[in-house]
Amino acid sequence: MLKTILRASALACLLVTTALAQQPNTSVEAHYARYRAAIESGDAAVAEEAASAALSASQQRDGNGGATGTLAYNLALVRIDAGHAAEALEPATRALQIAESESAGGLDPLAARLVFGQAQLAASPEQGAQTLTSAL
Question: Which residues 6+ apart lie within 8 Å of 45 measured at CB?
């Protein structure tokens, strides 16, 4: 389960790490570091809580800019892998909206569409399948 998160978010993590390394130590960076440590140790509950806190801090500080899109993507992935796809829909939607906008911050729109489709499967299997098919 967590291996999927690690693989799927490798590029996103690189982009966020690069973006955060250029900024002073902030609550976004601290929460993200806790998220990464939890992923590496296999603690899904702490990873979800830290990913949520990092996203919230980024939204407050940067709105849809900065690393907000990638952090929303990370939260959606954690929730999907934990079996909470319905709860992943909101951050997946936000990640997709940001990825398709000018403030994407390096988030790959295809990756965001795939995560959105996975989350959408829980709420509407037909729409989720259609989203995933059209993304591919």
Answer: none
